Amino acid sequence: MESCNLKPDAKKELSQVIALVKANKGKLSAYVNQSSAVSPFLQSPLSIAELVVTIPGANCLLLQVAKRLSTPQSSPDFVIGADTCVTLDGTVYGKPKDRDHAFSMLSNLSGRNHEVLTGVCLMVHKGQEWQEINFSETTTVNFATLSPQVINAYIDTGEPMDKAGGYGIQALGGMLIEGIQGDYYNVMGFPLHRFCQSLVPVLEEMFS
Questions:
Q1: 25, 44, 82, 207: which has the highest count of C-beta atoms within 10 A?
Q2: Domains and CATH numbers, the chain
Q3: Average pLDDT rounded to a whole number, residues 9-17
Protein backbone atom coordinates (compact mmCIF):
# COMPACT_ATOMS: atom_id res chain seq x y z
CA MET A 1 0.00 0.00 0.00
CA GLU A 2 1.41 3.41 -0.94
CA SER A 3 1.45 6.51 1.22
CA CYS A 4 -2.06 7.85 0.90
CA ASN A 5 -4.56 10.38 2.14
CA LEU A 6 -8.06 9.65 3.39
CA LYS A 7 -11.25 11.54 2.75
CA PRO A 8 -12.00 14.15 5.43
CA ASP A 9 -15.20 12.29 6.31
CA ALA A 10 -13.18 9.15 6.95
CA LYS A 11 -12.45 10.08 10.56
CA LYS A 12 -13.35 6.61 11.74
CA GLU A 13 -11.46 4.05 9.71
CA LEU A 14 -11.41 0.33 10.05
CA SER A 15 -9.95 -2.14 7.58
CA GLN A 16 -8.80 -5.17 9.46
CA VAL A 17 -10.66 -7.85 11.38
CA ILE A 18 -8.21 -9.57 13.77
CA ALA A 19 -8.62 -13.08 15.50
CA LEU A 20 -10.64 -16.23 15.78
CA VAL A 21 -11.27 -18.02 19.06
CA LYS A 22 -14.05 -20.62 19.18
CA ALA A 23 -15.88 -21.22 22.42
CA ASN A 24 -17.25 -24.30 24.07
CA LYS A 25 -19.91 -24.44 26.79
CA GLY A 26 -20.20 -21.22 28.76
CA LYS A 27 -17.12 -19.71 27.12
CA LEU A 28 -16.84 -16.69 24.89
CA SER A 29 -16.19 -16.96 21.19
CA ALA A 30 -14.70 -14.25 19.03
CA TYR A 31 -13.84 -13.95 15.37
CA VAL A 32 -10.80 -12.23 13.95
CA ASN A 33 -9.57 -12.35 10.38
CA GLN A 34 -7.74 -10.00 8.01
CA SER A 35 -9.65 -8.00 5.47
CA SER A 36 -9.27 -4.62 3.77
CA ALA A 37 -11.83 -1.88 3.36
CA VAL A 38 -9.45 1.04 2.87
CA SER A 39 -9.23 1.64 -0.87
CA PRO A 40 -12.76 3.02 -1.45
CA PHE A 41 -12.02 5.84 0.99
CA LEU A 42 -8.67 7.08 -0.35
CA GLN A 43 -8.59 10.71 -1.38
CA SER A 44 -6.56 13.90 -0.89
CA PRO A 45 -6.11 15.98 1.17
CA LEU A 46 -6.17 14.40 4.61
CA SER A 47 -7.99 15.73 7.66
CA ILE A 48 -5.80 14.14 10.31
CA ALA A 49 -7.94 14.85 13.38
CA GLU A 50 -9.27 11.56 14.77
CA LEU A 51 -8.29 9.82 11.58
CA VAL A 52 -8.89 6.23 12.53
CA VAL A 53 -11.81 4.42 14.09
CA THR A 54 -14.66 3.25 11.86
CA ILE A 55 -15.82 4.29 8.42
CA PRO A 56 -19.39 3.12 7.81
CA GLY A 57 -18.26 0.93 4.93
CA ALA A 58 -15.67 -0.79 7.08
CA ASN A 59 -18.15 -1.25 9.91
CA CYS A 60 -20.54 -2.74 7.41
CA LEU A 61 -17.84 -5.25 6.48
CA LEU A 62 -17.36 -6.16 10.13
CA LEU A 63 -21.09 -6.59 10.60
CA GLN A 64 -21.23 -8.82 7.54
CA VAL A 65 -18.51 -11.02 9.03
CA ALA A 66 -20.41 -11.21 12.32
CA LYS A 67 -23.67 -12.16 10.61
CA ARG A 68 -21.96 -14.69 8.33
CA LEU A 69 -20.54 -16.49 11.36
CA SER A 70 -23.86 -16.55 13.16
CA THR A 71 -25.95 -19.71 12.87
CA PRO A 72 -28.91 -21.02 14.88
CA GLN A 73 -26.51 -23.48 16.51
CA SER A 74 -23.56 -21.20 17.21
CA SER A 75 -22.30 -17.64 16.84
CA PRO A 76 -19.39 -15.57 18.17
CA ASP A 77 -20.03 -13.50 21.28
CA PHE A 78 -18.05 -10.67 19.78
CA VAL A 79 -16.08 -9.71 16.68
CA ILE A 80 -13.04 -7.43 16.87
CA GLY A 81 -11.83 -5.19 14.06
CA ALA A 82 -8.79 -2.91 14.10
CA ASP A 83 -6.49 -1.00 11.80
CA THR A 84 -3.29 0.93 12.46
CA CYS A 85 -1.60 3.63 10.42
CA VAL A 86 1.40 5.94 10.69
CA THR A 87 0.91 9.65 10.01
CA LEU A 88 3.28 12.57 9.50
CA ASP A 89 2.46 16.05 8.18
CA GLY A 90 -0.99 14.99 7.01
CA THR A 91 0.23 11.95 5.10
CA VAL A 92 -0.71 8.39 5.98
CA TYR A 93 2.12 5.89 5.53
CA GLY A 94 1.21 2.35 4.61
CA LYS A 95 3.61 -0.46 3.77
CA PRO A 96 6.50 0.41 1.44
CA LYS A 97 6.01 -0.74 -2.14
CA ASP A 98 9.75 -1.18 -2.76
CA ARG A 99 13.19 -0.39 -1.36
CA ASP A 100 13.23 3.21 -2.57
CA HIS A 101 9.82 3.80 -1.06
CA ALA A 102 11.00 2.38 2.30
CA PHE A 103 14.09 4.63 2.19
CA SER A 104 11.92 7.67 1.50
CA MET A 105 9.54 6.83 4.36
CA LEU A 106 12.28 6.31 6.92
CA SER A 107 14.11 9.42 5.77
CA ASN A 108 10.93 11.45 6.32
CA LEU A 109 10.44 10.00 9.81
CA SER A 110 14.11 10.51 10.77
CA GLY A 111 14.65 12.94 13.64
CA ARG A 112 10.96 13.79 13.94
CA ASN A 113 7.86 12.91 15.93
CA HIS A 114 5.01 11.15 14.16
CA GLU A 115 1.73 9.62 15.26
CA VAL A 116 0.54 6.04 15.20
CA LEU A 117 -3.26 5.76 15.20
CA THR A 118 -5.30 2.62 15.71
CA GLY A 119 -9.04 2.40 15.32
CA VAL A 120 -10.89 -0.46 16.98
CA CYS A 121 -14.45 -1.67 16.50
CA LEU A 122 -15.95 -4.25 18.85
CA MET A 123 -19.19 -5.88 17.71
CA VAL A 124 -21.04 -7.52 20.62
CA HIS A 125 -23.75 -10.13 20.01
CA LYS A 126 -26.91 -9.29 21.96
CA GLY A 127 -29.81 -11.55 21.17
CA GLN A 128 -30.59 -11.08 17.49
CA GLU A 129 -28.69 -7.79 17.23
CA TRP A 130 -25.07 -6.61 17.22
CA GLN A 131 -23.97 -3.68 19.40
CA GLU A 132 -21.09 -1.60 18.07
CA ILE A 133 -18.39 -0.08 20.30
CA ASN A 134 -15.76 2.16 18.64
CA PHE A 135 -12.66 3.94 19.88
CA SER A 136 -9.29 5.18 18.64
CA GLU A 137 -5.89 5.41 20.29
CA THR A 138 -2.98 7.67 19.34
CA THR A 139 0.69 7.25 20.29
CA THR A 140 3.44 9.75 19.47
CA VAL A 141 6.73 8.17 18.35
CA ASN A 142 10.02 10.05 18.46
CA PHE A 143 12.42 8.80 15.78
CA ALA A 144 16.17 9.21 16.17
CA THR A 145 18.09 11.03 13.44
CA LEU A 146 19.09 8.29 11.01
CA SER A 147 21.99 8.34 8.60
CA PRO A 148 21.52 6.93 5.09
CA GLN A 149 23.81 4.07 6.10
CA VAL A 150 21.60 3.14 9.06
CA ILE A 151 18.45 3.35 6.95
CA ASN A 152 19.94 1.14 4.24
CA ALA A 153 21.21 -1.37 6.80
CA TYR A 154 17.73 -1.60 8.30
CA ILE A 155 16.13 -2.04 4.88
CA ASP A 156 18.65 -4.81 4.17
CA THR A 157 17.07 -6.84 6.98
CA GLY A 158 13.80 -6.92 5.03
CA GLU A 159 11.82 -5.90 8.10
CA PRO A 160 10.42 -2.59 6.77
CA MET A 161 8.68 -4.11 3.78
CA ASP A 162 5.62 -5.49 5.59
CA LYS A 163 5.25 -2.72 8.18
CA ALA A 164 3.11 0.41 8.02
CA GLY A 165 5.51 3.34 8.07
CA GLY A 166 8.37 1.04 7.17
CA TYR A 167 9.35 -0.02 10.69
CA GLY A 168 8.38 -2.35 13.52
CA ILE A 169 8.87 -1.13 17.09
CA GLN A 170 8.68 -4.68 18.46
CA ALA A 171 11.69 -5.88 16.45
CA LEU A 172 14.84 -4.32 14.98
CA GLY A 173 12.97 -1.10 14.29
CA GLY A 174 12.88 -0.46 18.01
CA MET A 175 16.54 0.56 17.76
CA LEU A 176 15.52 3.55 15.64
CA ILE A 177 13.17 5.01 18.25
CA GLU A 178 14.26 7.40 21.00
CA GLY A 179 10.96 7.36 22.85
CA ILE A 180 7.19 7.27 22.72
CA GLN A 181 4.32 9.06 24.41
CA GLY A 182 1.42 6.68 24.84
CA ASP A 183 0.68 2.99 24.49
CA TYR A 184 3.57 0.83 23.24
CA TYR A 185 1.16 -1.91 22.13
CA ASN A 186 -0.72 0.64 20.04
CA VAL A 187 2.45 1.13 17.98
CA MET A 188 2.63 -2.64 17.57
CA GLY A 189 -0.89 -2.56 16.15
CA PHE A 190 -3.39 -3.10 18.95
CA PRO A 191 -4.06 -0.82 21.97
CA LEU A 192 -4.39 -3.60 24.52
CA HIS A 193 -5.06 -1.52 27.64
CA ARG A 194 -7.75 0.61 26.01
CA PHE A 195 -9.34 -2.50 24.50
CA CYS A 196 -9.48 -4.22 27.90
CA GLN A 197 -11.06 -1.12 29.41
CA SER A 198 -13.74 -1.25 26.73
CA LEU A 199 -14.22 -4.99 27.07
CA VAL A 200 -14.71 -5.08 30.86
CA PRO A 201 -18.23 -3.57 30.91
CA VAL A 202 -19.22 -5.85 28.02
CA LEU A 203 -18.16 -8.94 29.97
CA GLU A 204 -19.75 -7.67 33.18
CA GLU A 205 -23.06 -7.31 31.36
CA MET A 206 -22.72 -10.74 29.75
CA PHE A 207 -22.12 -12.49 33.05
CA SER A 208 -24.34 -10.41 35.32
A1: 82
A2: 30-97+113-140+180-207 (3.90.950.10)
A3: 33
